[in-house]
Amino acid sequence: MAxxxxxxxxxxxxxxxxSMLNDNDVIPEAMLLLKEEYFYNTKYREIFRxxxxxxxxxxxxxxxTTIIDLPHLKSDIWEIGEMVVSGSNINHYIPxxxxxxxxxxxxxxxxxxxxxxxxxxxxxxVMVKQILDGVCKPSVKNKMPTPCSESxxxxxxxxxxALMSKSRVRGIPTGxxxxxxxxGGLMPGKLILLAARPGLGKSALATCISRNIVKETDKxxxxxxxxxxxxxxxxxxxxxxxxxNLSDLIHGRLKNDQSRFALMCNAAQDxxxxxxxxxxxxxxxxxxxxxRTLMETKKNPAIGxxxxxxxxLLSAHTTxxxxxxxxxxxxxxxxxxxxETKMPVLALCQLNRDIELREDKRPKLSDLRDxxxxxxxxxxxxxLHNENPQDGNMVTVDIAKNRSGTTGKLKLYFKKETTTxxxxxxxxxxxKI
Length: 433
Known about the structure:
By secondary structure, this protein is an alpha/beta fold. It folds into two domains: 1-142, DNAb Helicase, Chain A (Orthogonal Bundle), CATH 1.10.860.10; 172-429, P-loop containing nucleotide triphosphate hydrolases (Rossmann fold, 3-Layer(aba) Sandwich). It is built from 16 helices and eleven strands. The protein has helices at 10-22, 27-33, 42-56, 63-69, 74-81, 90-119, 122-136, 148-164, 177-183, 202-216, 230-242, 246-250, 258-268, 286-299, 323-341, 373-377, and strands spanning 191-196, 220-225, 276-279, 303-309, 345-350, 380-385, 394-402, 408-415, 420-422, 424-425, 428-429. It has a nine-stranded mixed beta sheet with strand order 3-2-4-5-1-6-7-8-9, sandwiched between helices. Helix 11 (230-242) crosses helix 13. The longest helix has 30 residues, at 90-119. The protein starts with 9 loop residues before the first helix and ends with a strand. 34% of the residues are buried. Residues 426-433 have low confidence and may be disordered.
């Protein structure tokens, strides 16, 4: 505990709070740069939370109102409230509070890494490297508004990186060539919606993309499943990789078939599935999704894609608003999560039933169920539908919105027996990816 105290500056935390209590003009900037957990002192955390709650509710903030909210901390609030008379120097205090918080977090991670290192296990050594990479990675901070001229250098650097890259796409490749050519892969910080009516393969395509990514890249996948249990998803993976019909696996139709039994066992034991993390808690809000994501990415910095299956099954943070308002809140939170983590968020969505009633059954952005905010918040919207029922297992993938590239359509072959999507070249179904 004595060593941990090195990473705590009581004056920096107290002066930060004092500045906010005495100068409300500095509070908006402080709220952008600080979080409750940045304060080491538990009393100061409580005071910051009281200031934050009043700020969110647009209520007056000063020493007296904070004492009303926290009467048990009256003497502490008076003490820090008298430390400054204005907030003019808060920009000197906040960086110190943030820096010390990051040092404490790094210390915790390094202690965990040391414990794993001493175990000597190969798997733990991989985790040690990932933890060290995470400690060295710059933390994500809220940015202040800047002139566009300052952003030009970043834009040119990204363009140069794309020009120099040997990869054909800037984002994480999905494993489907034509799709990657249209959307540029799954781009960091982007919200991608994958939408369709039930039974057209949303979850199947998401799991195929997951498997392609862990197989072909160094990225891991975090999958939130609100519709299927983890063992159901795992059974799909076995079917996709082994080529054994899903129904045969579910109903145990492998008796006296040693070859297929061996294929099943080999698929189930593939090490790539250690890199797909499944959270199948059936009751989730976007807040719990965010919390679990931050927790998992802290443990495993290799996670590069977040999948939510599916968005409208999330529970609302509040039950007082209408359903379309609740989904709008979820949509904004999903986009914020992508921005915060600098990862693509692939969110599956249902389409309205109205599509079944009209003659032209090609999905439109307005068909996104329960909220118009979905189409506004999404960077990319991908629809799955059967454009021509005579095509059999051919599924049309329609890029209806794409901020990072062009829109367009392509076809994939959907082998329903194994829930596998395949690339198509020259009208021939290729071996599955």
